[in-house]
Amino acid sequence: MHDVAKAAGVSAQTVSRALNGRGYVSAEARKRVLDAAAQVGYSPNVIGQSLRSARSPMVGLVVSDIGNPFYARLHRAIETPLRTAGLSVLLLNCDDDPELESAQLDLLASYRPAGLVLSPATGSRFSARQVALFENVVLVSRTLPDVDVPTIVTNETEAFAAAADELFAAGHRRVAAVLGPEGASTTHLREAGLQRATAARPTRDSVVRYSEGTSLAARTATADLLASDPGITAVLGFNVPVTEGILIAVRDAGLRVPQDISVIGFTDAGWMAAVHPAVTAVAQPVEEMGRLAGDLIVRMSVGEQFDHVPHLVVPGELVRRESVAPPREERR
Amino acid sequence: MHDVAKAAGVSAQTVSRALNGRGYVSAEARKRVLDAAAQVGYSPNVIGQSLRSARSPMVGLVVSDIGNPFYARLHRAIETPLRTAGLSVLLLNCDDDPELESAQLDLLASYRPAGLVLSPATGSRFSARQVALFENVVLVSRTLPDVDVPTIVTNETEAFAAAADELFAAGHRRVAAVLGPEGASTTHLREAGLQRATAARPTRDSVVRYSEGTSLAARTATADLLASDPGITAVLGFNVPVTEGILIAVRDAGLRVPQDISVIGFTDAGWMAAVHPAVTAVAQPVEEMGRLAGDLIVRMSVGEQFDHVPHLVVPGELVRRESVAPPREERR
DNA sequence: CTGAAAGCGCTTACAG
DNA sequence: CTGAAAGCGCTTACAG
After folding, report:
1. Of A247, B3, B36, B304, which residue is least crowded by CB atoms under 10 Å?
2. Chain B environment of A109 (Cβ under 8 Å)
């Protein structure tokens, strides 16, 4: 910067002003600075900027499982609006471990980022105190009872109820759901959807299993369900890895989808349309959720105030494919 | 830090030394500093550290498609050894666009990261000049002719040849491969594998299509291949999204895997084992590649010198499942 | 083993 | 519209 100032024949502050477009600079001085910067090959040192201004031009994205394609899609969707605003995304993974999440958040806080997009771990200890460290916080997908910040979620209860009802409508009398961890808001809300759909049909029944939300955990849970409860003829998944685990367990048990077991996944994935039978699933508008999260962070970081803390709900949509059929009993 | 120094009754440098474990500090002073730090709730400001030491404790991971699960797995695998070493991972996506890659690298460089793990975009302009900006660079999966840095790759040619040979051995006379972009090292090496396998069988033939390496591009390419060349009875995929696109195109054409068309994917994914027919694929040891990349960066960042620039090759392995069968002709 | 001084690269008041 | 001064939080020599 010193070199640029010298080459342009101005002071360092003028260089700063010209390059950042803040404050008054004469058109001529600006041009001289820009030329000099190009000449010298100057690129600003973000660290220096951040130290002085007590803000880094980055936004932390802390997720509970980077192996879940939901979060990969979210990352991509968030990144675009933020990049346009000159912000980069630091992705941190916490494997749904509140301890690790806390450590990752401390690390992130030490960068003084412009914002935080968080999908909290089960049992997260993220609190109002920590919110203050981050200035601009948006919760995506999962919410937290004690933290009053903007949120972006799917209409979990309604969408899951619709999926369950699709199975009941096809004739299934006993539907199982392999959910995520018991403490997650998403598990809670989707379970409520299942209860609602079940309650609306007096002759129907449902059973629930909690899991880590991974393929392996879902496979084990589904195997157990199938072996212990022969009345189950349909299974609802919780996320992409869980849907995968359910399908593997059904295969392992020597059963066929949908002839023996119907399956509906929650959150769509490209492969679900590519395979036989194509998997019916509730498609979440992940790209829109990410875009909204990015936009919110940008607006907050330029100081926009909201009359009410925004709590955005984007609707999921049931995509009917081939993994749902009437149950065996009715076929015989 | 000032507060900690005051509370401990020492100078700021002693605090720095005690907390970082560098230089001499008396056991008593160290204890007083540690207690004071805990008392005050001190957490170091990474920005301040980075500015002074001209290094941030972060490693950039720049990938060409975060939507490709290969890179999500790579991120997770790299993150673990780096976190142990006190380094965090900044993931940047460039959508295989050399322009954007260049911008992302400039951004990253301005943080003075401890290292860079790069899977270069097709037509990347990453050069020796840029390598110098990053101190420690490792190339993963894709290599670059003019850049002499450590690399970690799969045995592309051999693994792809083995996959092709699996199809020839099953009786296929004309095998198609939907590859990635023409300029990518991975495309080049895998194509060489296909040629080698084809050349070894005088009566067999192969055809190649380049693509963007996305599901959509592969779908289009495969549809075209299938429509224009009825001799094709088997298709090799390039990566997980391409395999997905191939399967969709086969479906769209009203054909069945493996009865009408055999398919082998490159890079395994959980869903490939979950579906009917389960997809035969070359499994890449992504986790090992990530771990090796992380380890290399850590070793380089503590100043370890190598006699030779390491070029690590980790073998892929053909996982036989159900998507390969003899071609139609032989069945009739 | 410890502290006083300097400075990393930048931007924020402030004075002109 | 522009510049001299100060300082963000830390660590690197250096002197004791």
Report:
1. B304
2. 43
Q: Is A201 on the interface with B (CB under 8 A)?
A: no
Q: What is the pLDDT of residues B90-107, one digit of tens each?
A: 889 999 999 999 989 988
Could B76 and A66 be called an inter-chain contact, meaning their C-beta atoms sit closer than 8 Å? yes
Smallest Cβ distance to A244: which of B44, B56, B271? Answer: B271
| Residues in CB range of A20: below 8 A, 6 or more apart | none
Domains A2-44 and A156-284+318-331 share a fold: no
Cα torsion for A190, A191, A192, A198, to the nearest 10°? 110
A2-44, CATH topology level: 434 Repressor (Amino-terminal Domain) (1.10.260)
3-state SS assignment for residue A103: helix
Q: What is the CATH number of domain B156-284+318-331?
A: 3.40.50.2300
Question: Rounded CA gap, A319 and A285, in Å?
Answer: 12
Distance A24 CA to C13 C1' (A): 15
Report if CB A15 to strand D is under 7 Å: no
Tokens 């980790």 belong to residue:
B314
Q: B79: which chain A residues are within 8 Å (Cβ-Cβ)?
A: 66, 93
The mean pLDDT of B218-240, rounded to a whole number, is 97
Parse chain B into domains and list their residue ranges: 2-44, 55-153+286-314, 156-284+318-331
| Beta carbons of B275 and A273 less than 8 Å apart | no
Quote the mean pLDDT of chain B. 93
